[in-house]
Protein backbone atom coordinates (compact mmCIF):
# COMPACT_ATOMS: atom_id res chain seq x y z
CA UNK A 1 0.00 0.00 0.00
CA UNK A 2 1.43 3.35 -1.07
CA UNK A 3 0.80 6.08 1.49
CA UNK A 4 2.33 9.40 0.63
CA UNK A 5 1.37 12.87 1.74
CA UNK A 6 0.62 13.94 -1.83
CA UNK A 7 -1.69 10.98 -2.36
CA UNK A 8 -3.43 11.66 0.93
CA UNK A 9 -3.82 15.35 0.10
CA UNK A 10 -5.32 14.53 -3.30
CA UNK A 11 -7.73 12.08 -1.70
CA UNK A 12 -8.76 14.63 0.86
CA UNK A 13 -9.24 17.31 -1.80
CA UNK A 14 -11.39 14.92 -3.83
CA UNK A 15 -13.73 14.20 -0.90
CA UNK A 16 -13.93 17.75 0.44
CA UNK A 17 -16.71 18.92 -1.95
CA UNK A 18 -18.85 15.95 -0.93
CA UNK A 19 -18.76 16.98 2.73
CA UNK A 20 -19.09 20.74 2.20
CA UNK A 21 -22.41 22.20 3.34
CA UNK A 22 -24.70 23.58 0.68
CA UNK A 23 -26.67 26.74 1.19
CA UNK A 24 -30.42 26.41 1.45
CA UNK A 25 -30.63 22.65 1.89
CA UNK A 26 -30.81 22.63 5.69
CA UNK A 27 -33.56 20.99 7.64
CA UNK A 28 -35.89 22.76 10.04
CA UNK A 29 -33.66 21.80 12.94
CA UNK A 30 -30.70 23.45 11.26
CA UNK A 31 -32.81 26.54 10.69
CA UNK A 32 -33.88 26.57 14.32
CA UNK A 33 -30.26 26.25 15.42
CA UNK A 34 -29.27 29.10 13.12
CA UNK A 35 -32.04 31.26 14.58
CA UNK A 36 -30.94 30.46 18.12
CA UNK A 37 -27.32 31.27 17.29
CA UNK A 38 -28.38 34.52 15.66
CA UNK A 39 -30.48 35.45 18.67
CA UNK A 40 -27.55 34.67 20.98
CA UNK A 41 -25.21 36.86 18.94
CA UNK A 42 -27.79 39.64 18.83
CA UNK A 43 -28.18 39.53 22.63
CA UNK A 44 -24.41 39.78 23.11
CA UNK A 45 -24.16 42.63 20.63
CA UNK A 46 -27.04 44.49 22.31
CA UNK A 47 -25.35 44.18 25.71
CA UNK A 48 -22.06 45.41 24.27
CA UNK A 49 -23.71 48.44 22.66
CA UNK A 50 -25.61 49.24 25.86
CA UNK A 51 -22.42 49.00 27.91
CA UNK A 52 -20.64 51.35 25.53
CA UNK A 53 -23.54 53.79 25.69
CA UNK A 54 -23.51 53.62 29.51
CA UNK A 55 -19.79 54.39 29.57
CA UNK A 56 -20.23 57.59 27.62
CA UNK A 57 -23.34 58.55 29.61
CA UNK A 58 -26.00 58.00 26.94
CA UNK A 59 -27.69 55.01 28.61
CA UNK A 60 -28.99 54.70 32.14
CA UNK A 61 -27.85 52.08 34.62
CA UNK A 62 -31.22 50.27 34.50
CA UNK A 63 -30.78 49.54 30.77
CA UNK A 64 -27.25 48.32 31.39
CA UNK A 65 -28.36 45.97 34.18
CA UNK A 66 -31.16 44.57 32.00
CA UNK A 67 -28.82 44.00 29.06
CA UNK A 68 -26.25 42.28 31.26
CA UNK A 69 -28.94 40.08 32.85
CA UNK A 70 -30.17 39.02 29.40
CA UNK A 71 -26.60 38.25 28.36
CA UNK A 72 -26.03 36.20 31.50
CA UNK A 73 -29.15 34.13 30.80
CA UNK A 74 -28.12 33.60 27.18
CA UNK A 75 -24.62 32.47 28.16
CA UNK A 76 -26.00 30.12 30.83
CA UNK A 77 -28.39 28.60 28.29
CA UNK A 78 -25.57 28.14 25.76
CA UNK A 79 -23.37 26.48 28.39
CA UNK A 80 -26.22 24.15 29.38
CA UNK A 81 -26.77 23.12 25.77
CA UNK A 82 -23.04 22.59 25.30
CA UNK A 83 -22.87 20.43 28.41
CA UNK A 84 -25.78 18.30 27.18
CA UNK A 85 -24.14 17.82 23.79
CA UNK A 86 -20.84 16.81 25.40
CA UNK A 87 -22.66 14.43 27.73
CA UNK A 88 -24.49 12.81 24.80
CA UNK A 89 -21.23 12.47 22.89
CA UNK A 90 -19.58 10.80 25.86
CA UNK A 91 -22.51 8.39 26.14
CA UNK A 92 -22.06 7.47 22.47
CA UNK A 93 -18.37 6.83 23.06
CA UNK A 94 -19.21 4.48 25.95
CA UNK A 95 -21.43 2.30 23.75
CA UNK A 96 -20.00 -1.14 23.03
CA UNK A 97 -19.10 -1.73 19.41
From TrEMBL:
Superkingdom field: Bacteria
Sorted UniProt keywords: Bacterial flagellum, Cell projection, Cilium, Flagellum
Main location per the UniProt record: other
Cited InterPro entries: FliE
Locations listed in the record: Bacterial flagellum basal body
Similarity field: Belongs to the FliE family.
Cross-referenced PANTHER family: FLAGELLAR HOOK-BASAL BODY COMPLEX PROTEIN FLIE, PTHR34653
The name this protein goes by in its record: Flagellar hook-basal body complex protein FliE
Taxonomic source organism: Celeribacter arenosi
Amino acid sequence: MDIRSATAALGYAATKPATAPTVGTGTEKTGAFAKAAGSFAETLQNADETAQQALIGKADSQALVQALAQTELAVEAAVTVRDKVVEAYQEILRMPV
